[in-house]
Amino acid sequence: MELLSKSPKKTQVANIISVVVVLALASLRGAESRKARILESFEYNAINCRAHSASITDFGGVGDGVKSNTKAFQDAINHLSQYSSDGGSQLFVPAGKWLTGSFSLISHFTLFLHQDAVLLASQDLKEWPLLKPLPSYGRGRDAAAGRYASLIFGTNLTDVVVTGKNGTIDGQGAFWWQQFHKGKLKYTRPYLIEIMFSENIQISNLTLLNSPSWNVHPVYSSNILVQGITILAPVSSPNTDGINPDSCTNTKIEDCYIVSGDDCVAVKSGWDEYGIAFGMPTKQLIIRRLTCISPYSATIALGSEMSGGIQDVRAEDITAIHTESGVRIKTAVGRGGFVKDIYVKRMTMHTMKWVFWMTGNYGSHADKNYDPNALPVIQGINYRDMVADNVTMAARLEGISGDPFKEICISNVTIGMAAKAKKVPWTCTEIAGITSGVSPRPCDLLPDQGPEKLTECDFPPENIPIDSVKLQKCTYGMN
Length: 479
Description:
Strand content: over 45%
Largest sheet: 20 strands, parallel
Number of strands: 28
Number of helices: 4
Oligomer: single chain
Structural class: mainly beta
């Protein structure tokens, strides 16, 4: 028994060790507790950072994919609006499936989706407010009446960011596509994201799935950055355009991957007499590093709703795979407006129906009141440095009688024809321009300049203002 006894000195040392161990464990538990209280912490890049933060869960949000969160989103945004003039605010959507109908954004605001967050679009029509038709269209695209508000909507805003760590917005579009095909919709289908009459907008680092109709629609707005977006929809889905800048100025679309049932990027500015009267063009647009798959539509479409005008579009480093056409200009008698100063370079295409397509006979009028004397002006179209393979037809270029498409330039383009390609690779009517170093040989209306007069089509060397915007490194942390 004596061997088991401890001296006072040894007992004191043991007690000290015990206290140290207890303190260490308590410290670890405290650190773990503090760590547990920090729900999320991360960095992201944005046009502006925010002074105030909140999570959708603070306002009763439940990410179970069943409970509607429409009220929670609107309550959260309404609450955060008090900080619009005090450093702005950000709303965090954590991991989970967040069922919601349409909700509206505010200025000086960031909506941020966790990488495992999914916004699920509600299929309850009561959660989709109705809006009047766009003034430059005069009617809805699906029906003559108005339209459903987009899932994420905003108007008359400044400084808005919708971003995430590649979080997902799922439009659950099959419900809408079925109603559309059955002719049962009285109003135009909603889009996933629409921002109107606004400036300084960023939409970035998100995955957009199965939109009811168009995916991203900035309209009547300026200073817009769309970056790092993945858009996915069945190639048979109706009107699931990827990104549609519409009557917008100073816009950049870059580093996006789009698979859709319609045009991957569709540049617009209003429809017939309504677009002419509204008179707001789309101009200063950059499209860069885009990858597109759309077997029934275009990689980049200009029009057909172009009645307010489209000018100064610059596209570069574009990849199209199994897509109906590379660049398509769509217009018609009655559209008015213009498409001019278009520049495209370094485009790579695999398995295409047409590389180039221009048509002045697109039809599809808003109503019967369009002006048959309103002829569009198509001029200054520049394509260069392109390669394509497995192509059915090199080009289908059809201007308007008495209103030819002019100043077309195509240079340094090599098109590999498919085994079952059309016997005549180029068809051209009512167009005028030149080509240089193009194979197969273009039509006579686009004469080749010959090896002694090699021509490089224009591409402006100077940047537009949106290219000089520098993103800030922002942080989010919630205790």
